[in-house]
Amino acid sequence: MVKKIIIVSSTLLIMSLFALLKAYPTEDIHKPKDTAVGPSSVVLELFTSQGCSSCPPADALLWKVKQEFPNDVFALSYHVDYWDYIGWKDPFAKPEYTQKQRAYGEKFRSNSIYTPQMVINGREHFVGSNRAELYSKIDAYKTHSAENMIKITNTDVANGTVAFSYVATGKIDHKLLRAVLVIDERVTQVKRGENRNRTLKNSNIVVQEKYVELKHSRGESSIQIPDIISKNDGLTLMLLLETADLDITGAAKKKILY
């Protein structure tokens, strides 16, 4: 069963970031793009929670897809915090990720948000455990070239941060760069809530993110390594390019030695 929660706030952190930029209409993925510059990139954002009994099948499906498409699919698991009240506090949940999901809810003109929810390239959504829908959408998006290409040219880990350099190709006007740190996998023994006494495996867990305004096609920035990351975690840096309407137009990723 899909878990839903009604949207009660219209003043959102993510939307305020993009309010300063020129808005773009949502594009039909089936419409040819004259601005395409490179190979396809399929970005999957799963909104999930360890406190939601409907989420483990979607978590397992995301892990499966990540294994099958290691290069052109970018799998992200965002843990939301609105199910923490049931009795289990998800260690990866952040209110910022709930705000991000609400921003998508406003974009999709939905009066509720739910888990598990899968958003693909920021353009459409469906129930995250729907295997047939997911594979169909991946196949569809893989047939289209990306509007932007982005390359991570250098990374350096020091003083609790990951410094990185990047080069973007294609039109970058009115777009933002989203830097995301994800850990490869974590197993959790859940002691309370709907998943009480279950052992849950989550993959590609978002543990930190940062937005950077794109002023030039190349640049440098950094992102903080949160305390939740340990030396045993596989760490990946992902860079995503986004329009003001939250469409994702390009992506890159690189393993980080930590």
TrEMBL record:
Domain of life: Bacteria
InterPro entries: DUF1223 (IPR010634), Thioredoxin-like_sf (IPR036249)
Pfam (any one): DUF1223
Protein name per UniProt: DUF1223 domain-containing protein
